[in-house]
Amino acid sequence: xxxxxLFLILVLMVFACQSREDSEQEANSSTxxxxxxxxxxxxxPATPDSAYLIVPGESIGRIRLGMPASELYAVMGKADSGxxxxxxxxxxxxxxxxGQPRQYVAAYTVNSFDEAGSPPMVQQVQVTSPQxxxxxxxxxxxxxAEIRKEFSQVEPLAYYTxxxxxxxxxxxxxxxxxxxxxxxxxxxxxxxxxxxxxxxVTGTYLPVHPDMTRLKQP
Length: 218
Fold this sequence. Notes:
Elements: H1 2-30, H2 37-40, E1 53-55, E2 59-60, E3 63-64, H3 69-76, E4 81-85, E5 88-94, E6 104-110, E7 121-127, E8 133-134, H4 144-150, E9 155-161, E10 167-173, E11 178-184, E12 189-195, E13 213-214
Parallel strand pairs: 1-8
Antiparallel strand pairs: 1-2, 2-3, 4-5, 5-6, 6-7, 7-12, 9-10, 9-13, 10-11, 11-12
Organism: Pontibacter saemangeumensis
Region (Disordered): 24-43
Protein name: Beta-barrel assembly machine subunit BamE
């Protein structure tokens, strides 16, 4: 209980600090000169290529929620690794070498075993590559403060420890169907997950991070 309380306090402090920074930035912007010609000349962010577009509650790139597993494999090819149990499957496609950090695309599928004989369907998609972006340009590599400007209702649901021994918090805007993994203390997003709207991203039988600690019970 003490351990849980300590981390809950930590994550609340992170969000409080981000909120204070947002308020200070808004105050500073209200006193800035109105004739900032350099800012006015800045072009609007380019819309991401559809192959790398993150659509909350719907899709990431060419992988759609509700896509049959057979179609998923036709699009992505054979997975590099994965796990499966009780009609649920988690598959990973991992980037290859090139001297760059290895990134992955993960897809979570579920077989409902209904009377209609429906095939396994994609329920969640996660990406770590900064190539993937929302329509407004958010994705891995952005800060928590930047994320909260567009997704103001995100809340921390769980945390885990990564290979660099950093605490990583999973924050989710359940109503819109999108979650972000954010490291502490630098508050940088390392992964984005799209899931069904109105659901808890951590409530899966085969989570990407099985050692995570939930801050709330599903």
